[in-house]
Amino acid sequence: MSDKGLPAAFYMGLARSLILAEARRSQSPREVLSNVNRLLREVSRSGMFVTVFYGVFDLPTRRMAYSRAGHDRPLWLRADGDIRLLDAPGIVAGLLDADEFQVAEAAIDLSPGDTLILYTDGLTDALDPSGSLFGIDRWIDSVQACAGLSPTRLSETLFETVTAFQATAPQMDDMTLLVMRIS
After folding, report:
1. 74 phi and psi, to 5 degrees?
2. How many domains does the chain have?
3. pLDDT digit of tens for each residue in the chain (183 aa)?
4. Rounded Cα gap, residues 148 and 6, in angstroms
5. Which of 162, 176, 181, 152 is nearest to 77 (CA)?
């Protein structure tokens, strides 16, 4: 979200509702996010925006189509230890008119043991007491160091790592993490 407080909460609720409604109309993540952007622009001219990662996972084939509307690039931790960023380009939703809004759609084929790690920028943008940024490189290194852990323990360890980095520095943004292991 581009803001905090009650207006941001209402806007997030609106965005979520629109995503759920549009998901019933299309299997294409790009089409869903394009329609949501258009609808957000129609009902709100507040200058607010939302970042979104939207994926459609086909369980039998383990194929996931996805689009990103400005959201941080999720990590794909492969069973062999390789880490890739899911980096299909895309712009935040709700800020630009339909003719300027662009998101790409990409697909990946997941294998048993692969892990998807989705997170908010509060984790990578965390600051230590001297103002140094945790950053994406440290985030990827932290994930790599935890590669063999269960999803629950991986989540706990990543939060512990960021909290230890922050030490006494205040938390400046939300920190949300979703870890999904493919079986």
Report:
1. -60, 160
2. 2
3. 556 678 888 889 999 999 999 999 999 999 999 999 999 999 886 789 999 999 999 999 999 999 999 999 999 999 999 999 999 999 999 999 999 999 999 999 999 999 999 999 999 999 999 999 999 999 999 999 999 999 999 999 999 999 999 999 998 888 999 999 998
4. 40
5. 181
Rounded Cα distance between 37 and 153, Å, is: 36
Report the predicted TM-score, pTM, of the whole model to 2 decimal places: 0.90
Beta strands in 70-172 (DSSP E): 75-77, 83-85, 106-109, 115-119
Could you tell me if residue 171 is left (phi over 0), alpha (psi between -120 and 50 degrees) or otherwise beta? beta
Query: Hey, what's the torsion of the CAs at 33, 37, 39, 42, to 10 degrees?
Result: -170
Q: Are residues 106 and 125 in the same domain?
A: no
In this structure, the answer to whether residues 137 and 92 fall within a common structural domain is no
Residue 37 lies in a domain: yes
Quote the domain boundaries for residue 172.
Answer: 112-183
Q: Over the range 13-25, which residues count as b (16 or more CB within 10 Å of their CB) and which as e?
A: ebbeebbeebbee
CA distances from 76 to 5, 64, 147, 150 (A): 32, 11, 11, 15
Q: Which two tokens stand for residue 41?
A: 């622009």
Tokens describing residue 113: 């043991």
Q: What is the pLDDT of residue 2?
A: 55
pLDDT given for residue 45 in this prediction: 67
